[in-house]
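Researcher: Please generate the 3D structure of the following complex. Treat every line as part of one assembly.
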Amino acid sequence: MPDLRELYQEVILDHNRRPRNFQKLEGANREAEGYNPLCGDQLTVYLHLEDGVIREISFQGSGCAISKASASMMTATVKGKTVAEAEGVFETFHKMVTADLSTTFDPLEMGKLAAFAGVREFPVRVKCATLPWHTLHAALEGKPEPVSTE
Amino acid sequence: MKAVNALTGLDATRQPHAAFDVERIREDFPILKERVYGKPLVYLDNAATSQKPTAVIDAVTRYYLAENSNVHRGIHFLSERATQAFEDTRAKVARFLNASDPREIIFVRGATEGINLIAQSFGRTRLKPGDEIIISAMEHHSNIVPWQVLCEEAGAALRVIPIDDDGELLVDEYGKLLNAKTRLVSLVHVSNALGTINPVKRVVEMAHSQGVPVVIDGAQAAPHMPIDVQELDCDFYVFSSHKLFGPTGVGVVYGKAHLLEAMPPYQSGGDMILSVTFEKTLYNVIPFKFEAGTPHIEGVIGLGAAIDYVAGIGLDRIGAHEAELLAHATQAVAAIPGIRIIGTAKEKASILSFVLDGVHAHDIGTVLDQEGIAIRTGHHCAQPVLQRFGVPATARASLAFYNTKEEIDALVRALHKVTKLFG
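Model: Done. Output below.
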């Protein structure tokens, strides 16, 4: 039986209670919206992108603890990174939360984001964890239409 | 004298105070013995779909073991047997709804397809630019979008009856919306998101006083209360088999015969015709005009068994047991700190929707799941009504007659775990 504490790690609960960078970003030059039609989660990711570097990032919206904490920790992680670096983190993150349970990953490489490894045991919650990242990806690409998990 | 409908359980010979033996009833539902993560299954997601009694499972099995063949076609023994079982169900549904004639019962895929049938076949022919259709603020998407699509095509407008903070329909506001441009009213009988039981008889009377026909979406009502379409005098009534303890993939449209007769077919193909030449096709009579192609035969037969089963218990007794459970659940859940019940109408059935301060419904659902408790979380395909209450999602426990007080207590214990984890 999957353990709830694996899913709801302290750091996730903390970011859910006190999400970081949780506001509209004044002077943003990129933004994208993401929806999970299954549960009604919705968020907007704001970016200030300059010379291929994410200078500022914030988000707003409503969602479950997993999506909110994921968004919060994402903003903290990619701030100051280049577009290519951020996309690289997304790729590793995505692999981690969708990998089967036997796959190991390097916790050092993931840093704090390793807290989301428990999501693997809750397949219906994977979309909650990845929605912010898909939305970030859309903002980086400058896609005009909203992102959907479906 | 109005015939008393034995199928709805309103039989005068039934003892109204006969004990409701929920443990005996649970024996009829094999799935209720399942364990989830080693814990007993507590199934409180009945508004999404209901569980099936052995009688229904057996009827479907029996069809494939001994009756399988196509209906309305064969000259052979099996086809006659299948056709008989299929048409018997039509008669059972007619009695279940107290329709005056089985020809007024059309089988479709579900309540959603039922509304689409009415929208496309009945609505489309009546709408012109500037006309209006009235729905309510508590509709399921299936009773919003088909009308939206139709209005857009016709240049007509959708009008919405507002509700109050308890989730009750504002009947006076509805009266103001009714006017010479109104072509149709389509209203949910019991709200899937709030549990509100709407005063549908009054709504029909008010519409009819202005010559406006009324569609009732009974998807959440049919499993919980006796329905009498003649007493309601509604023009159409739809419900789904799978919420009434029958198979998925079957729904019912009741329509007044004179309206159905005047309507064009919804889909075309086999079975809905009298004769076909390349020059002209003559349509079949009702109800067959609306049933193109081979139907969901085993599903319909299973629905027949479900209706027999429910009638054997009696919807009056079902309603009484559920009302007691809902009152207990409402009191116990509302007492948990931080919980707000969404939908507090005086007349409610089955549904307990709630939000918890600082905890998203999705997280509540995951914690409850770990305790073996199945509830629905999210917007319940009724986003506008959640917007009305200013919440993006709710957690929803929905009861059936096989649920017990002990299961409600398990729900309450699990909710305390939620508040502890996220507190």
